C-alpha cells in the first residue's frame, strides 16, 4: 500500500470506456459517441418485459487486486478551494480541497466528458464548465443537470503529510456511476391494465422522473409511453449532428429499462386523459389506469402555411429519421433553412460542408436577436457568412415551388427566388397538448400546462414537466415562464418524481443551455427575456467574449464563447441566491483587461 508505482498491465474488463474527446470543438458530439456500447438495437416496443437481464456495474466492495493506491501530492500542494487532476496509473482522478478536507472524484463530467478541473467549485459542489451539471464533492452525486449519471467517489487518506488516493481500477475507467436503484417488484408489471405511475413523454423529463423514482426506492410499476419509435435519446444532438444514428443517441441501453422495470411503450399515442377515473386511452384503444401521472409531451414543430407547402423534401426536425433524411438529400444540393434560431442555425452549420449551398431565411434583422441581442447576433452571422452561408433577412417564405412534386425553388416575400432541393423549417414549436383540451387539466391560452414550483397541475396527482409547461422561476420573482431547455426538462422531471413521493421539493435550477456551430460552442445561463442592455467583455470579432444581459440594475443572463468557465461561474452565483449588479459588471469590463473573474466569487474587490 502507498507510494507511487509503475503502470500495471491492463486486465481484460467488460466495461464501457468513455473515450476522451479529441478536442474541445468536438465536445457537443462526444456523448455516447460512434459505436458506443450504450447503443441498443431494435425499436424497444414492449408491453411485456422480462427482468432476468441485469446490467454489469462495478462491485460495491472491490477486491484488493482490483484497487490501486498512490500518493498524489503533499497536503500543502493544494489551497482551499483548489482542484487538481492527479494520475493513478489506471486513470485520472479529480482531487479537491475544500474547507481543509480532501475529496477525490471522477475527473470527467459523465454528460459529454468535460474536464471538471476547469469547472467551478462552490458550496460543496463542482459545476461542469461546458453545460453546467453539478456534482456533490462529498458523495460524487449529480445534483444538477444535464446528464443522468454521477461521479465515482474515491477514498482519501493523509499519512506523513502526503495525500493518498485509493480507487477501484474499474471505477477509474468507467468515469461514471449510475445511482443505486430499486427494481420493480409489482406482480402485475407488464401485463395488467393499471400502473402506479404513468409518464406520458419519454424525453429528458420523463426519463429523469422514472429514474428518480427508482433511485428513491420506489418499487411499484412505472410505464413510460412515447410517440417515438425509439427509447429515450439525446434530442439536442439531432440538429448538431444530423447523421447520427438512433442507436448512437440512446440515453440508456434497452437492458437498463429491463433491469429496473421501467416499461417503455413506443409509438404509443395518448388520445384522452380521464382524470375522474384516473385513466388514459391510447390511439389503438388500449386503456391504462394510473394513480400518479406525469405529463411531459414536449412540443410539436410549427410548419409553413404558405402556398405549395405540400411539396416533397420540406422538413421539420423532430426525430433521428428526419435528421438522417435531411443529410442524405442535402449532399451536393441546395438547402434553404427557414428560421435563424438555434435549430435552424445548427442545421445550417452542419450542412455547409455537405451541401452545395446553404441559405437562411429569417424575419428578424440578425440571427438570435431576441435571445442574444444585436451585437452577438451579428458576430455569429459573420461567422456563418465566412462559411459560405447566405442570409435573406427581414423576409419570409411566400411560396414553395415544386417540379414533379419535389421542391425546386423557395419564393420570398421580397420576391427573391432561391434555388432549393431541400428545405428545413425551424420557426419554433407549440406545446403538444391538444389531447388534454377536454380533460379538465388546466391549459393556458397558448396551450402550455401551468404548474407550481412542485410541478403540480391543477389536478391532484397529475404533474407536468418539460417543454410543454410554464412554471414559477424562483430567482426572477416567481415569474411564470416557459423554458424549453434540455437541462430544465431534467430538473423538472426530478422535482415531479420527488413530489409524487411527497418529498416537497421545489424547482430552483438556474437555466443553462448551449449550442455548437462550426466546432465552436456558445454557452448561456439565466433567463434573459426582456433584457434592456448588453455589456460585452472580450472580442466579438474573434468570438472570444462574454456578454452580460441586464434588466434595470440586475444581470439576468450571460452568454460566452471561448471564455470558460464564466457562464458556469455566473450560474453558480445566481444559484446561491446572490444578485449580480450591473455596476459590478461595468467595473469588471472597465478595469479587467485580463478577464479576471475573482469579483464574481467574492474573492476580488
Automatic annotation (TrEMBL):
Any Gene Ontology biological process: execution phase of apoptosis
Region (Disordered): 22-45
Localization per record: Mitochondrion
Domain Rieske: 70-165
Metal-binding recorded as keyword: yes
Record's GO cellular component terms: cytosol; endoplasmic reticulum; mitochondrial inner membrane
SUPFAM superfamilies, per the entry: FAD/NAD(P)-binding domain (SSF51905), FAD/NAD-linked reductases, dimerisation (C-terminal) domain (SSF55424), ISP domain (SSF50022)
GO molecular function terms attached to this record: 2 iron, 2 sulfur cluster binding; metal ion binding; oxidoreductase activity, acting on NAD(P)H
Main localization (coarse): mitochondrion
Family matches, as InterPro entries: FAD-oxidoreductase/Apoptosis (IPR050446), FAD/NAD-bd_sf (IPR036188), FAD/NAD-binding_dom (IPR023753), FAD/NAD-linked_Rdtase_dimer_sf (IPR016156), Reductase_C (IPR028202), Rieske_2Fe-2S (IPR017941), Rieske_2Fe-2S_sf (IPR036922)
This protein's UniProt keywords: 2Fe-2S, Apoptosis, Electron transport, FAD, Flavoprotein, Iron, Iron-sulfur, Metal-binding, Mitochondrion, Oxidoreductase, Transport
Family stated for the protein in its record: Belongs to the FAD-dependent oxidoreductase family.
Its job: Induces apoptosis through a caspase dependent pathway. Reduces mitochondrial membrane potential.
Protein's UniProt name: Apoptosis-inducing factor 3
Upper lineage: Eukaryota, Metazoa, Chordata, Craniata, Vertebrata
Amino acid at each position: 500500500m502507498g507510494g507511487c508505482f509503475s503502470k500495471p498491465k491492463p486486465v481484460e474488463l467488460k466495461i464501457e470506456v468513455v473515450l476522451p474527446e479529441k478536442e474541445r470543438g468536438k465536445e457537443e458530439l462526444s456523448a455516447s459517441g460512434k459505436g458506443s456500447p450504450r447503443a441498443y438495437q431494435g425499436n424497444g416496443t414492449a408491453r411485456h418485459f422480462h427482468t432476468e437481464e441485469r446490467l454489469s456495474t462495478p462491485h460495491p466492495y472491490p477486491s484488493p487486486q482490483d484497487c490501486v493506491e498512490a500518493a498524489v501530492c503533499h497536503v500543502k500542494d493544494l489551497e482551499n478551494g483548489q482542484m487538481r487532476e492527479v494520475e493513478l496509473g489506471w486513470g485520472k482522478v479529480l482531487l479537491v480541497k475544500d474547507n481543509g478536507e480532501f475529496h477525490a472524484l471522477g475527473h470527467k463530467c459523465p454528460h459529454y466528458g468535460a474536464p471538471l478541473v476547469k469547472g467551478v467549485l462552490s458550496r460543496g459542489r463542482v459545476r461542469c464548465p461546458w453545460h453546467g451539471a453539478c456534482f456533490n464533492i462529498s458523495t460524487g452525486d449529480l445534483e444538477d443537470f444535464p446528464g443522468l449519471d454521477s461521479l465515482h467517489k474515491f477514498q482519501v487518506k493523509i499519512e506523513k503529510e502526503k495525500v493518498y488516493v485509493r480507487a477501484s481500477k474499474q471505477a477509474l475507467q468507467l468515469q461514471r456511476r449510475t445511482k443505486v436503484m430499486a427494481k420493480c417488484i409489482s406482480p402485475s408489471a407488464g401485463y395488467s391494465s393499471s400502473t402506479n405511475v404513468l409518464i406520458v413523454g419519454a424525453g429528458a423529463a420523463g426519463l429523469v422522473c422514472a429514474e428518480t423514482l427508482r433511485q428513491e426506492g420506489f418499487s411499484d410499476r412505472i410505464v413510460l409511453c412515447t410517440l417515438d419509435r425509439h427509447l429515450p435519446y439525446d434530442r439536442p444532438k439531432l440538429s448538431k449532428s444530423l447523421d447520427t444514428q438512433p442507436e448512437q443517441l440512446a440515453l440508456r441501453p434497452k437492458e437498463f429499462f429491463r433491469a429496473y422495470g421501467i416499461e417503455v411503450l413506443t409509438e404509443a399515442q395518448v388520445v384522452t386523459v380521464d382524470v375522474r377515473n384516473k385513466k388514459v386511452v391510447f390511439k389503438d384503444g388500449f386503456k391504462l389506469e394510473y394513480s400518479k401521472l406525469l405529463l411531459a409531451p414536449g412540443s410539436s414543430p410549427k410548419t409553413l402555411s404558405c402556398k405549395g407547402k405540400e411539396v416533397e423534401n420540406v422538413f421539420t426536425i423532430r426525430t433521428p429519421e428526419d435528421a438522417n433524411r435531411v443529410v442524405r438529400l442535402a449532399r451536393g444540393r441546395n438547402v434553404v433553412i427557414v428560421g435563424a434560431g438555434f435549430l435552424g442555425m445548427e442545421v445550417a452549420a452542419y450542412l455547409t460542408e455537405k451541401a452545395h449551398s446553404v441559405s437562411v431565411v429569417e424575419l428578424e434583422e440578425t440571427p438570435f436577436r431576441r435571445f442574444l441581442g444585436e451585437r452577438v447576433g451579428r458576430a455569429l452571422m459573420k461567422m456563418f457568412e465566412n462559411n459560405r452561408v447566405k442570409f435573406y433577412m427581414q423576409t419570409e417564405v411566400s411560396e414553395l415551388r415544386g417540379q414533379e412534386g419535389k421542391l425546386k425553388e423557395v419564393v420570398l416575400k421580397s420576391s427573391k427566388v432561391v434555388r432549393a432541393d431541400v428545405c428545413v423549417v425551424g420557426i419554433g414549436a407549440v406545446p403538444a397538448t391538444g389531447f388534454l383540451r377536454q380533460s379538465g387539466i388546466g391549459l393556458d391560452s397558448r396551450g402550455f400546462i401551468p404548474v407550481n414550483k412542485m410541478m403540480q397541475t391543477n389536478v391532484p396527482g397529475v404533474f407536468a414537466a418539460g417543454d410543454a409547461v410554464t412554471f414559477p422561476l424562483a430567482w426572477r420573482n416567481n415569474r411564470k415562464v416557459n423554458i424549453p431547455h434540455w437541462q430544465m426538462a431534467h430538473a423538472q422531471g426530478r422535482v415531479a418524481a420527488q413530489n409524487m413521493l411527497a418529498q416537497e421539493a421545489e424547482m430552483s435550477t438556474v437555466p443553462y443551455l448551449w449550442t455548437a456551430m462550426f466546432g465552436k460552442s456558445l454557452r448561456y445561463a439565466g433567463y434573459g427575456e426582456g433584457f434592456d442592455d448588453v455589456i460585452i467583455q472580450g472580442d466579438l470579432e474573434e468570438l472570444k467574449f462574454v456578454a452580460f444581459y441586464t434588466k434595470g440594475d440586475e444581470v439576468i443572463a450571460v452568454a460566452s464563447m471561448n471564455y470558460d468557465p464564466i457562464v458556469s461561474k455566473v450560474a453558480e452565483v445566481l444559484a446561491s441566491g446572490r444578485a449580480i449588479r450591473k455596476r459590478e459588471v461595468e467595473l469588471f469590463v472597465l478595469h479587467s483587461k485580463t478577464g479576471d473573474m475573482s469579483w464574481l466569487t467574492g474573492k476580488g474587490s
